[in-house]
């Protein structure tokens, strides 16, 4: 039975979504093509009908996950988002969490196409609030962007550091608690000024 173009597109999207989750859970080297396709409900042989290589899928899955992360970050109150982001719940569920926190270290060792997907996703998240700053002087825009970079680096770094500790380690919670309190205090101060 021939697969329609629409079904082929849906199958590809399902593979990308499945890969995005598995890569966040296990890292890029922890997921083989056969395991990935089985998890998506397809045969290994069908992979190359959709993708030229695992690297192509890694880049597309990164773009997908990073877009979802950016949408989540921009869809509500920043304090609520960051309270969840720098939390034990997020830390303990990498498959459902942020692609940056789960895969930035892996991405650094991957081909340029994966790094480019990360750079584009990070830029998207940094630039999303910038449209609200159009009328501001360039120096104010630059300072606002710098604050977003610091905030992103601290939030992602807190989750990465916490994940590197044993699950039952008091340090894992201390890292999250200290960073979350600092981030939220900074946001409160920025709103007050």
Automatic annotation (TrEMBL):
SUPFAM superfamilies: Homeodomain-like, Tetracyclin repressor-like, C-terminal domain. Residues 9-69 form the HTH tetR-type domain. Residues 32-51 bind DNA. InterPro entries: Homeodomain-like_sf, HTH_TetR, Tet_transcr_reg_TetR-rel_C_sf. Keywords: DNA-binding, Transcription, Transcription regulation. It holds the Pfam family TetR_N. One of its GO terms (molecular function) is DNA binding. This is Transcriptional regulator, TetR family.
